[in-house]
Every structure is written in structure tokens, then in C-alpha cells.
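Task 17 of the worksheet. Students: predict the tertiary structure of the chain below and write it out as C-alpha cells. Keep your answer in the requested format; marks are given for formatting as well as content.
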Amino acid sequence: MSEAYSTLAEWFEYLNADCDYEKWSQYLYARLLESGIDRGKGMDIGCGSGVFTRALAKCGYDMTGYDVSAAMLSKAEQLGTGSRVRYVLSDARSIEVLGGKADFAVCVNDCLNYIPPRDVKKVMKRAASCLRKGGVFLFDVSSAYKLREILGNNTFCEDREELAYLWFNELKRDRIEMDLTIFIKGKDGRFDRSDEHHTQYIHERSDLEKAAAEAGFSVKKVEGEKGDAEDRTRLNFICVRE
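Model answer:
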């Protein structure tokens, strides 16, 4: 069994294309503008293959992406960098800003779901320490409802031309244990198998609000997927460092 994203990194954006990364990126950009951040230095915590890092750099921000997965960062580099983008191998619990305080940080697309509840406050404090006073922190989680009622104890599969996967979930009290088996088609037409294990933790809204406040953030708004007031699958937090 390989570590999370050792194989999936190569295919992550391809498999998640239906989440509409462009609309998602524009949502983040709109929230930054509403918060008065129209330029400056940004951090993408848990950047993965860099889809949001690149998108925000195109909006004019000086971006640094941070991730604990070397495979994900390798893919991010492959997909393109520029003068406004750099990548750093770092765990969210020990992250450090480069060259002075940042104007904002984003931590989206389930990064915090990979952090155990006992360590969430540590991530919040590290983010706060990297931001200037008045800096904006946008973070999200897949909601407790989504993990318990939609993903928990369920199996998913997909068969595409280039690959196929089986995804088995086991719901625990505070987390989901995920086992993925991935079959990737080679040039000779045969499929190579890889197995990965992921753990995603369930976080309650009240616990996240408390952790953010204790780290020095003022929580300005909490909303659903891309700002949808009716959505129950994702919680988006818009916070300002006091």
C-alpha cells in the first residue's frame, strides 16, 4: 500500500475536472476582492498539483504553494510555473512564509480533512503567524454531513479509457478510512495496479470556528460550495487575522 497521492497525483486534476476548477478559482478570487485583497502575496496551503496556485497567480497575486506530497508538487511543477509561482514541500502544521508576511492564504479542497482534529488549531496558528494583520484566510472542509452520509461506508468505481479505480470507504467515529486501487493503462495496453490509503477526518463547524478564533482570526462568513447557501457538502470559511 502506497502513501496518499503517490500514484493519484498524476491523475488528480483529470479525475476531478467535473468540479469546475475555473468557477471554484473565481469564487476564491471574488472573496479575496470582497475582502480588499486585490494584489500582494498569497499562500496556497495543501496546494496539491497547484490548480488554485496557478489560477490565483494568473489573477495577479505572487503565489507560493505548499504541500506535504512530493509527488503532487512534482506534478505542479510539470503543469507550469512562472515568476509569480513557487512551490515548497511542507506540512501544513509547520508551514512558514517566505520573505515577509503574506496578504492572504487559502487552504481548500479538503486539505484540512487530512488533518486530525487535535492538530487543526496548530494549522490555524501557523497560518495566522504567516499573515499580516488584516490578512485573509480562506479555508474549507468537506462537511461532516458529506463524510458521514455520502462518502462513509460506500464504494465508488469508475472505468475510463486511460485508467480505472475502485474506492472503498469505511466510516469510523471521527474519520473515514479510504482504500483506493488504481489501474493505469500502459503503452502496451496492459494495466498496472497501484494501491493507496487515505484518511479524512470529520470536522464540525463549531470546532473549526473555535480553532480559528483561538488562533487570532475573526470568522466573517461561513458558506457552502462556491458560496451556495443551500449546499451542505462543503463549508467555506472567510476569516481575517486580527
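Marker's comment: Helices lie at 12-15, 21-34, 51-58, 70-79, 117-130, 144-151, 205-214. The longest strand covers residues 131-142.
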